[in-house]
Amino acid sequence: MPVITGKQYIDRIDALQTYISIDGKVVTGKVSEHPAFKGVMQSQARLFDLQSEEELLEKMTYVSPTSNKRVGMSFLQAVTVDDLVKRRNAIREWALSNNGLMGRSPDYMNTTLMALASVAEYLKDKPNCFPQHLLRFYEYARENDLTMTHTFIEPQVNRQKFYFEDEDVTIAAKIVDKTSEGLVIKGARLLATQGGITDELLVISTNGFDEGKGFAFSIPSNTKGLKFLCRQSFVGGESVFDYPLSSRYEEMDAIVVFDNVVVPWERVFYYENVEVANNFLNVSGFQTYGLHQVLTRQIAKTEFVLGVVQSIVDTINIGGYQHVQQKVVDIIVTLETMKALLLKSEVEAKIDEFGFIRPDLPTVQVAIQMFPKVYPTFTEIIQLLGASGLMSIPSEKAFTADDGDLEHYLQSFQDGGKERVKKFRLAWDLTMSSFGTRQTLYERFFFGDPVRLASALYNSYNREELVNRVENFLKNNN
Fold it and tell me: pTM for the whole thing?
């Protein structure tokens, strides 16, 4: 099967009949028609349709080396800098479609799986490791244009570095049995964004001190005993006037419960190997490839934020104030810095030991240090510039029933009342609604704890040459 269409994606997810619980009720019927999932599934469907548009076919797809059919560019294993550019251009096209607001669009997990498959050789001849299973699944996902969600972390029961549950208590998902059919998993994991509306669940446990909790596998979302327990939906309503963003891009987050789930052996990539659980993600280049995709999306999102801010400035005619100009410039500086970092990561890309080329890791690590800190300031800038205008936002129904008062009294320097409110509702949904505040939290912790990310950069960045330069300077008496 070549790249799929949006309709095929929706039909496939509906047919799974995955166990999804939201607000205490199990979703029945077509999940694509449920208010909590309808909008985001339609937005995701449009991403798949873009792949088949004639003018975008070369940008969004490439010819599979095994089937000779067109497959998604985000599955491409890069061996040249040009391959990285191709990947970036395709990722950007999808990010522009949703203005960078869908953090778990399919290309993120496609990139993750590609990174893992690129180093399958690392698993060769290691105990309880199955590199051939990983390669087969990568090919299967690529050839069938699968969508995936994932869980990387355990429930926050106890945040000590080493926490062991009592033997008779199971909270974090772990192996409770091994049968001829496969691993038996019981417990829970966090935090599956788009949980329940993807074909597969990819599980990568980096618990490298408890053998029973170190594993990697992928299973269909409708596997027996697998449950997605969702948080409250942040979709404010179907009206794109009232909720221009949440009605389209609310991705949902879910707790994943494994109720004695059997993972077939052919879907197990590794298990009960502490060394591999500790090292596999780092060896795989998951971070550098993943951050290359993330940075591309965040650039599109920053462009959108800048557009929203400038629309507010123009609408109420505040561009002449220097403090306003400074706030806009702060966003511009962030945008251009991120664009420069993205290009630098490609220019300084290096071939890894497995023969693939990776974006420069320190460069993308710097980017992920910066963006979680500046994104909350974007929210603040919009609130400061919009001020009371972010409260004067009547609904679409109010304007429908309006006898002219709202249109007249809510007009701005540039727009009539309804048009001004439409722009300010967009700014509100981006920064102040449940959807908007979730976006801020999401970007703060998108790639993990910022402190741990800082430590990773501190420990990996090569500074020895710089110290030597200082030492040599001090020794030089001339």
Answer: 0.95
